[in-house]
Design brief:
Number of strands: 14
CATH topology of the domain at 8-27 and 141-158 and 172-275: Gyrase A, domain 2
Order of helices and strands: EHHHEEEEHEEEEEEHEEEH
Distance between the termini: 11 Å
Radius of gyration: 20 Å
CATH class of the domain at 8-27 and 141-158 and 172-275: Alpha Beta
Shape: elongated
Strand order of the largest sheet: 1-10-11-14
Structural class: alpha+beta
Largest sheet: 4 strands, mixed
Helix content: 10-25%
């Protein structure tokens, strides 16, 4: 039997190191929508972007293949980030279940340095979550993975720009996770009803890592204090906290205040816990 347990109490009784499963009530503040350039209409995958945005491509050529950017960020020292809109297409990378709606191109001295996709949540999130959860029952090869990505405000070579409904303009992450975990030692779930003003429910997951994984996460957090850490379960981003201090005890806390997201996280973590026994 899984060790996931539910405890109902009237108030918050713990301070969590990681917080962030809450659903946003509004979409990202800025989603590009000018997709009239002919070349943009032909982009239907990240492979298409990789073929067009070759390293050191000059800015004049960027405009030829993508049109004029929707907006530009000037970072100084000859560095800029150009943001382009694209006709939406399903993400074909670790962000599957979301849609790619644009691309952010890092420019250094008038040439492409790196680029990353801009994502928005799927229009039918519930279906995407359920499909991911069910895949975890087919065996370890298809089981969900707990993934940790360090977030950077600066573009990362061949990285991704995370801009979703839940995490608008979060930042850049690498193509592969800093740490990926397929087995968990133990998972607990605490349910709390908060009655200050309007009653609402909050769920807190306690995730206990195996000793080896705990040591790896401790090393990551010890050298990246004050940076954000994107946490994904399967293909779903669930939390993006700021690292306040090194994680010493191999325990991660994730809080949710959205029931549908909580159920998805619960199923993912239960599968990872079963893999650990």
């Amino acid at each position: 039997m899984s060790k996931i347990s539910c405890i109902l109490c009237a108030a918050c009784i713990s301070v969590c190191w990681l917080i962030g499963c809450s659903r946003r009530d509004k979409a990202a503040e800025h989603v590009p929508n000018d997709t009239g350039h002919p070349a943009q209409q032909a982009i239907r995958s990240t492979d298409d972007l990789r073929r067009l945005l070759i390293p050191t491509l000059e800015t004049t050529k960027i405009v030829e293949v993508l049109g004029e950017p929707c907006w530009k960020e000037d970072l100084g020292n000859g560095q800029q980030v150009w943001h382009f809109s694209l006709p939406p297409f399903p993400a074909d990378d670790a962000m599957q279940g979301s849609s790619v709606v644009g691309v952010a191109v890092a420019i250094t001295n008038g040439r492409v340095a790196s680029w990353g996709c801009i994502y928005v949540s799927s229009a039918n999130e519930a279906v995407s979550r359920e499909r991911t959860v069910l895949a975890g029952n087919k065996g370890e090869a298809d089981s969900p993975t707990l993934q940790f990505f360090l977030v950077s405000s600066d573009p990362i070579n061949d990285g991704r720009f995370i801009d979703t409904e839940r995490f608008p303009k979060l930042g850049f992450v690498a193509r592969t996770p800093t740490l990926a975990i397929r087995r968990l030692k133990e998972v607990t779930l605490e349910e709390r009803v908060l009655s200050q003003g309007r009653s609402r429910t909050n769920w807190s997951f306690g995730i206990f890592l195996a000793e080896e994984d705990g040591a790896k996460l401790k090393a990551i957090t010890a050298t990246n204090v004050s940076k954000k850490l994107l946490i994904m379960l399967g293909d779903e981003p669930v939390s993006a906290p700021t690292i306040r201090a090194p994680l010493e005890n191999g325990r991660v806390m994730i809080e949710c205040d959205d029931r549908s997201l909580m159920e998805s996280v619960k199923k993912h973590l239960a599968e990872l816990e079963r893999q650990g026994h």
